[in-house]
Amino acid sequence: MKYIETMSLADKLAVGVRCIELEKQGKYEEAEKLHHTVPLPPYLARLYRDYIGKDELLKSGWNLSEAEANLGPGWLDKKFSR
Description:
Order of helices and strands: HHHHH
Number of helices: 5
Shape: flat
Largest sheet: none
Helix content: 55-70%
Number of strands: 0
Radius of gyration: 14 Å
Strand content: under 5%
């Protein structure tokens, strides 16, 4: 199965650079919100879901588009074998 990316590496790096700039300016909350726009890798999305729960993961504001694209619709409620 081919991994599906929803944001290019160049765009992810650009967001990271901008986050660093914001942090240097003391704009930590803005940097965190921007950081959460980068898609969370599916393995981390699953780990976070298992650790903090579906509702908290959704409230956290992370971009879950790559998890959705790679794990399929309904992945938040799906049981995965380890």
